[in-house]
Amino acid sequence: MKKKIMIVDDNPDLLLSIKQALEYMDDNLKVTCASSGIRCLKLLKDNEIPDLILLDIMMPKMSGWETLKNIQKNLLWKDIPIVFLTARKDKIAKKGGGFFGEDYIEKPFDIDELKKRIDKVLEYRRNLKNSSVEY
Length: 135
Known about the structure:
Elements (H helix, E strand, L loop, with lengths): L2 E6 L3 H14 L3 E6 L2 H9 L6 E4 L8 H10 L8 E5 L4 H10 L2 E4 L4 H21 L4
Parallel strand pairs: 1-2, 1-3, 3-4, 4-5
Helix pairs in contact: 2-3
């Protein structure tokens, strides 16, 4: 079964290049693009639930922080791992991104490194899910 990744970023060129690169690198990935936090929430409401979300912080109308807040309010979405992918390099963003997300990746980034970090988060979540004890 393919792993679903959602990329949320207001840069259409970045969306397309990441989508094409990740799907080329791994046949087991299906990448959905959302050009805003608002579009991300709409896709989630339409039951486009990914295994992981790559989320930009600096976007117009609804920032990545606001998008994250809305995702976490919904019981069906709150456990989706969030990886921040952003040009923000200040300490506040780094600490917040590392605390609220599974990972924090600064732009520009190396696509191979991005893929490795996505795989690491997905593997961690898979292991967490498999190790949970049911009573």
